[in-house]
């Protein structure tokens, strides 16, 4: 069966609309002692992994353990807002205070939240990070 030009255009538009409608995770449940709270995704300045544990970090520097792996978060978070800069860290574009050219063609990201480790963009992700940061 051959598709005509109009049918192809309609099929492409349908797929495009479906992608545009994809919903991303907008809240996370976090446990605080005996309580559970719901935090909005945009409240997270970053997500990072330490061993098998993944943390959500808020603007005020609070860290919460969440029940997701970074790989899953990459699919669940809005890609124009969140970017995985290396194996262990995903950053929120709205929390980026500065990006510094670093050694070996890498970049260092400085967030509005204090973090005790340097956030370095992997060399193989620098070009894609720049495109994301620029809004492409």
Q: What can you tell me about this protein's structure?
A:
The chain has 3 helices and 10 strands; from the N terminus they run H-E-E-E-E-E-H-E-E-E-E-E-H. By secondary structure, the protein is an alpha+beta fold. The chain has one domain: LytTr DNA-binding domain (OB fold (Dihydrolipoamide Acetyltransferase, E2P), Beta Barrel), CATH 2.40.50.1020. The strands form 3 sheets. The chain has a 5-stranded antiparallel sheet with strand order 5-4-3-7-6, with no helix packed on it. Strands 8-9-10 form a 3-stranded antiparallel sheet, with no helix packed on it. Strands 1-2 form a two-stranded antiparallel sheet. A hairpin with a 7-residue loop joins strand 9 (106-111) and strand 10.
Q: Kindly report the name of the CATH homologous superfamily.
A: LytTr DNA-binding domain
Strand-residue fraction? 35-45%
Can you write the helix and strand succession as a string? HEEEEEHEEEEEH
Tell me roughly what share of residues is in helical segments. Answer: 10-25%
CATH architecture tag:
Beta Barrel
Key terms for this structure?
OB fold (Dihydrolipoamide Acetyltransferase, E2P); five-stranded antiparallel β-sheet; 136 residues; single chain; three-stranded antiparallel β-sheet
